[in-house]
Every structure is written in structure tokens, then in C-alpha cells.
Design brief:
single chain, alpha/beta, TIM Barrel, D-Maltodextrin-Binding Protein, domain 2, 9-stranded parallel beta sheet, 6-stranded mixed beta sheet, 24 helices, about 15% strand
């Protein structure tokens, strides 16, 4: 991409360039004081933070790196779970630690910006008091904010109460095209759209009240304290943003933001198959509806028994077969040595044959399918390494089949026990783990209270009636699935028969459609899909575009039951985060925004002008207040735009806004180092760091400067002094 606008660096005296991080993403996991995301990552089979970047012990190194670039602002967050380790029990050592971090920032000549709630809160708060929906949440949060302010308020310049409050709603909203909640805590299994609307109706006023009261507490101790928030703003065309804002103000939050967009597909689509058990992982796609996971396995490397290497590094320079389907092209670049010679295969059978005849030195793929149970040649093969990732396999269907999926999930729940038993037997003979417990609770409440049965009432739905009238259910299974073409039944075939029995009462009323692994999703595409595409487009843009509700509230434009009177005007500056956007002529690519929400940032849509429009809009709403871009940043390449170009383009839009009278005070580049991106696997898709840290492969967690360090240093160096 050619740079459209070069920054002349005409920033005013006192402009604050900075950088940032967040506690859960950079501090090592501590079992003694877990937060809700630790529990969520574990129960959902996501990537745990582990040691993260060990910022708790290495904060001086990262703060010094920021200062060396010329930064004048450094943002970090306090971990509520480390500060209040149980209800009312504040840890003075933890508070003292965060004070030392702030003093270190001050000592390096930078101003301090502290976030109190960066997507995480203590487990005890959620378990015992209903978390952010609880009646006492504003009270608990205010008490926490007060204790932090007492401990370190004299060394903090700017406070963020809630990081991206607009995103917190996704812990209570599961749009019709998703089968999971994007973040904790989730709602009980079977919750309908009215229950989601009710939850959001409690959440938003609680956030407003908690913010307003925490601000009062902080300013009671430090009257000059600057307190605000930083909603995540996605760039949309002005006409569309105005339409969405109007809806939030005039139709009521629950209806305008959520209820309308989560009520279900517009039509029930008819694909070439009813269901696809074709090697689809939960992270593979955003185009179809999916079941609960029926299998959890992980990336692994298979070698011949006689292979002499002992670890994955022994594959350097060797020939490795890779299965070119699903999410594997991205993962093999993450897991395999760069120097190995990769040969592409469309299925596991062909790759194993090449390994056995000596054409290959190894094969990379998912462990369960690399060496399935009952494989005749298994004694000639072994795993070199397993557990390189955590993959959740799901059943996919075209949109509009919620009732069918409800029945499928019932089968999946029973099937998981069989998979676990077979996996245990397989491991006993191979001494290698190939599968994990697949069940994933829908909500944290389910973790503590056990499984809650989904609501019934689907039996007369259109999608189920269609299958029953036909008398057969059509299930697609990829051609290299174990047991598809011989007398033995592999895992997918057994699952298909169980589904047929559940839906039609007879496991023989099943039509298995063999699917080419490399083109398996095409059988789900339908002629009526454009109707749901349009419906989903409006749902997506309504959900993502409605981030302005926070500032609509503080500007006094929302009903008082949504934003209480005490929260109106309760801010000392305007903060915002901006990453991606879509102009009018690219709105058809809205699913790239959904991809970004699921950690696939390499294809995230870059639209720098959206930042300019957001800055102008918030200045109109709050003409007397300074504005901070609290977060802005990119992975190494997003949608073909390098991080260097991304940085230049967005800072140019900040300069443009300043030239038009917008009082932008500061800009933080996200982030100072690589970090753990909320349960996603660490690779180029999720690496926003100015300093690269190989989180999975470098035991020393060395910080390595990227090219953007010099770029950012040069930009900062040209600011007026």
C-alpha cells in the first residue's frame, strides 16, 4: 500500500507520545490470585497466558525501552485480582508493587496512565456477587479504585476506569451466528435474546455508576486527577455511524444494540448437506453456524519409528509434509523451523504414505488425525512432539439451523464421553496424549454450578421438519476421515450415526457425502445465503458500530435508566482506542472485522481516515476536553499494510485532526512488547509489540526491537519541544 499521507510532525508543545500494556497480557499467571480470564482460558481450551512477558519482574526493562524511544507517557494496568485477593482483603505488597511501577515510569521522565479494569476482575467477585451485573458492583469497584488511589494516586497523572467498556457487553451477547461467548462470563446455556438484553440492561448502568463513583473517590484524594475511559471505536462511514447512534438514542439500548441483532437467522438455508463433520475447527471460519466441540486435539509432528531426531528443531532443513486445510497454513509457520522444506498435501492419508515410503522426514497436523485409532501401520510411526496447539473440532451447518444444532449438541455431549474413553486407551498404548476433554462450558456459572440443560421447544422448527420429511439426514465427511471407506467406523462416522439416531430415531437413515478435504466448506454454501449475509451485516455493524454508547451516555443523550444522572459529564478527558475500519465502498468485507475479533488480525481492515472522523466527532460532543488516543497499533502486516505504514498513516490522521482544531493531547502505540492476546495462539496474527518477544519458544523472553522502534523514535523526535 502506498502511503496516502505523510506526517509533517506539526504536533503542539507538550504532546504526549507513549506506549502501553495490560496486566493479564504481560504478567505471569499466579494461581493464588486468578482473574476471570484465567478461568475462561482454561475452561474454553484457549491459550493460557503462562509467564506472558513476565512484566511483573521485568517492568524496569520495558519502561526503559519506552523512554529510550522518547515516549512521554506510559500506560499500564493494576490487576484487581492481585490487589484484592479476596473480598475486602487488600494485599499491601501488591499495591506497593504497582506504586513502584508508577515511580519507575516517573523516574524515566514519563507521565503515568493507569487502567483499573482491563477486561479482568477477581474470580470471587463473579462467583459470589454476580460480577459486573451484581447490585453491589459499583460499590466494590469504587472501594477498589479508592484503595489504589490511596496507595499511588500521587504518582498517577491519568486514570482509565474501564478499558473498552463497549467490548464488555460481549460477555453477555452471543449473536445468532456464534455458538460461544467471545469473553467471560457468558450466560447460562439456553439463554435467549431477552435474557441477553436483560443482562446488558444491568451491565451498562452498572458500568456508568461504577465509573462515576470511582472518579469521585479518586478526585476526593487528588482533586487534580484526570479520569476517563477508552471505548474501542471501529471506523464506519459517517452516514452509517450517525444511523447507528440515532438508533441507540431513540430506540432504547437493549433493542437497538442487541435484541435486534441476536434474534436468529433470517432464512433457513439449504446446502448440499445438512451437517458437515469435515475437519472444521472452531477458529476456521466465520461463515457458518457450528456445534459445541466434539473433539479437542492439538498440532503435532509425526515421524517414522526409526527417526533419530529428538525434538522439533531436528527438522531444520528436512522435508516435512503439511496438511493444507483449515487453520494449518498459519500454524505450521508458527511451529516449524523456517529452514525445513514444506510439501503440501490435501489429506492425511497421502501424507502418511509419503512418510512411510521415505519421501518425507515428518508430517505436521492435528495429533488425533495424524495417528488415528485402528491405523494398521501405527507401529511404524511415532510422535516427535505433540501439544503444539489446542484445536476444537466442531460440526458446521448453513445459517438458520439452530434447532438442528441444539439436537446435535445433545449428541455431542454424549459422544464426548466415548472420545475420552478411546483417547485414554489409545494413550495407554502409545504413551502420547492425542485428545483432551472437549466439553466447554458456555458460561463461568456453568463451571461452578454444573451443566445446565439447553431450553427445549425446537422440535417443530422448519429446519428439523425439512430433515424429517426427507427421512434421511445428509452429513458430509471428508474423504480421509478414518474408517470412511472400510468396515471399521472412524470417529466422524460414529458421530454421524449417533446424530441420525437422535434426529430420525434410526442410525441407518443417514446419507454420508464424501467431501474433498481442501474444498469441504463449499457444500455448505447456498443460493439464499445472501439474505443472511445482509441480515448478519446489519447485525455486525449494529453491534460493532454501537461503541459510541459510552459517550452518548456521558453527553446526556441516552435515557436516564441507561446512563444515570451522576454519570453524565463524569470525565476529565476523552479517551478512545482505534485499530480498524471500513469505508462505504468496503462494507461488503465486514467479516474481516469478525476475523479480527477472533484473533485473525492479518486480514483486519485498515482505514486510517476512520480515526480522523472519530476525533472530529468526539470533539464536537465535548469541545472543551482534551482527547487521548489511548490505543492504536497493528500486527506486522494487516490487510497488506505494514506496521510501519500503518503507524505513519494513522499519526498523519492525528496531525490532520490537530490542524483542524481538535485538541488531541496524546497517542499511545499498542503495545510496548508482544503479549498474550486474550486466549489466542501467539503468532504474527496476534503480535502487536514494538519489541518482539517469542512467548512460546524463548525461555529467556528476550526483547528484540522491531523496525518500528526506530520509526516511532524518529516520529517522536520531530515533535516540538
Amino acid at each position: 500500500m502506498v502511503l496516502q499521507r505523510q506526517c509533517a510532525m506539526a504536533f503542539p508543545n507538550g504532546f504526549l507520545f507513549g506506549t502501553a500494556n495490560a496486566d493479564h497480557q504481560v504478567e505471569a499467571h499466579d494461581p493464588a490470585c486468578e482473574d476471570v480470564w484465567d478461568l475462561w482460558e482454561r475452561c474454553q481450551g484457549l491459550t493460557p497466558r503462562g509467564r506472558a512477558t513476565d512484566f511483573w519482574n521485568r517492568y524496569e526493562e520495558d519502561i526503559a525501552a519506552a523512554a529510550a524511544m522518547g515516549c512521554k507517557l506510559f500506560r499500564f494496568s493494576t490487576a484487581w485480582a492481585r490487589v484484592e485477593i479476596s473480598e475486602g482483603n487488600f494485599d499491601e505488597a501488591g499495591l506497593a508493587h504497582y506504586r513502584r511501577v508508577a515511580e519507575c515510569v516517573r523516574g524515566r521522565g514519563m507521565k503515568v496512565m493507569v487502567t483499573l479494569h482491563h477486561f479482568v476482575w477477581p474470580v470471587w467477585l463473579e462467583r459470589d456477587h454476580g460480577g459486573m451485573l451484581g447490585e453491589r458492583f459499583p460499590e466494590f469497584f469504587t472501594r477498589y479504585a479508592d484503595r489504589v488511589a490511596v496507595a499511588m494516586g500521587d504518582v498517577v497523572d491519568y486514570w482509565i476506569t474501564f478499558n473498552e467498556p463497549s467490548q464488555l457487553t460481549f460477555g453477555y451477547i452471543k449473536p445468532w451466528w456464534q455458538n460461544r461467548y467471545y469473553m467471560p462470563p457468558g450466560l447460562p446455556r439456553g439463554s435467549d435474546v431477552d435474557a441477553e438484553a436483560e443482562a446488558v440492561g444491568k451491565l451498562i448502568p452498572n458500568l456508568f455508576l461504577a465509573h462515576a463513583r470511582a472518579r469521585v473517590a479518586i478526585k476526593a484524594l487528588r482533586p487534580d486527577a484526570m479520569v476517563g475511559v477508552n471505548p474501542l471505536v471501529t471506523g464506519f462511514p459517517t452516514w452509517l455511524q450517525m444511523l447507528v447512534d440515532w438508533g441507540a438514542c431513540h430506540r432504547g439500548m437493549a433493542e437497538a444494540l442487541f435484541k435486534f441483532t441476536t434474534s436468529g437467522a433470517l432464512v433457513s438455508e439449504k446446502g448440499d448437506v445438512d451437517l458437515l463433520i469435515g475437519g472444521v475447527t472452531a477458529e476456521d471460519h466465520t461463515q457458518f453456524e457450528t456445534s459445541d466441540p466434539y473433539l479437542r486435539t492439538g498440532k503435532a509432528v509425526l515421524v517414522a519409528t526409526a527417526y533419530q531426531g529428538k525434538d522439533i528443531e531436528s527438522l531444520a532443513g528436512r522435508k516435512v509434509g503439511v496438511i493444507g486445510i483449515g487453520n494449518q497454513p498459519a500454524s505450521w509457520n508458527r511451529d516449524l523451523p523456517e529452514s525445513c522444506v514444506k510439501k503440501l498435501f490435501s489429506n492425511y492419508d497421502a501424507a502418511r504414505m509419503a512418510l512411510l515410503d521415505g519421501t518425507l522426514d515428518a508430517v505436521y497436523g492435528d495429533a488425533y488425525f495424524l495417528l488415528p485409532e485402528g491405523l494398521e501401520v501405527s507401529e511404524n510411526l511415532r510422535f516427535l512432539v505433540t501439544g503444539l496447539s489446542d484445536e476444537a473440532y466442531v460440526i458446521a451447518t448453513p445459517h438458520g439451523h439452530a434447532a438442528l444444532l441444539a439436537r446435535v449438541n445433545k449428541v455431542v455431549a454424549a459422544f464426548q464421553g466415548e472420545v475420552a474413553k478411546n483417547a485414554a486407551e489409545h494413550e495407554a498404548s502409545s504413551m502420547t496424549p492425542v485428545a483432551k476433554k472437549a466439553k466447554r462450558p458456555v458460561s463461568l456459572r456453568e463451571v461452578w454450578r454444573g451443566t445446565e440443560e439447553p431450553l427445549e421447544g425446537f422440535s417443530e422448527s422448519r429446519d428439523l421438519r425439512r430433515v424429517r420429511r426427507r427421512g434421511k439426514i445428509r452429513i458430509g465427511i471428508r474423504t480421509d476421515a478414518p474408517g470412511l471407506f472400510n468396515g471399521d467406523e472412524g470417529l466422524e462416522v460414529r458421530l454421524a450415526r449417533m446424530i441420525a439416531h437422535e434426529i430420525l430415531g434410526d442410525e441407518l437413515q443417514l446419507v454420508i457425502v464424501p467431501i474433498d478435504p481442501t474444498h469441504r466448506l463449499t457444500v455448505l454454501k447456498t443460493k439464499s445465503g445472501w439474505l443472511n449475509w445482509a441480515w448478519r451485516f446489519w447485525g455486525t455493524t449494529s453491534l460493532i458500530g454501537n461503541v459510541n454508547w459510552w459517550y452518548l451516555g456521558t453527553a446526556g443523550k441516552l435515557p436516564i435508566e441507561v446512563c444515570p444522572q451522576e454519570a453524565i459529564g463524569a470525565q476529565d478527558f476523552v479517551g478512545l482506542d482505534y485499530y480498524w475500519g471500513l469505508p462505504t465502498w468496503k462494507l461488503g468485507k465486514f467479516r474481516s472485522l469478525e476475523d479480527a475479533a477472533h484473533g485473525r488480525f492479518l486480514h483486519a481492515p485498515v482505514w486510517p481516515q476512520g480515526l480522523y472522523h472519530a476525533l472530529r466527532r468526539f470533539h464536537r460532543w465535548f469541545p472543551e476536553q482534551e482527547i487521548f488516543i489511548v490505543e492504536n497499533g497493528s500486527v506486522p502486516v494487516a490487510n497488506g499494510v505494514s506496521r510501519t505504514d500503518y503507524l505513519h498513516l494513522h499519526i498523519a490522521e492525528v496531525e490532520r485532526a490537530i490542524a483542524h482544531g481538535v485538541p488531541v493531547k496524546g497517542y499511545n502505540f499498542w503495545s510496548i512488547t508482544s503479549n498474550r492476546e486474550w486466549g489466542h495462539a501467539f503468532d504474527r496474527n496476534t503480535d502487536f509489540g514494538l519489541y518482539f518477544v517469542n512467548l512460546d519458544k524463548d525461555p529467556q523472553l528476550n526483547r528484540v526491537a522491531t523496525a518500528e522502534v526506530a520509526v516511532y523514535r524518529e516520529i517522536i523526535g520531530k515533535v516540538k519541544s
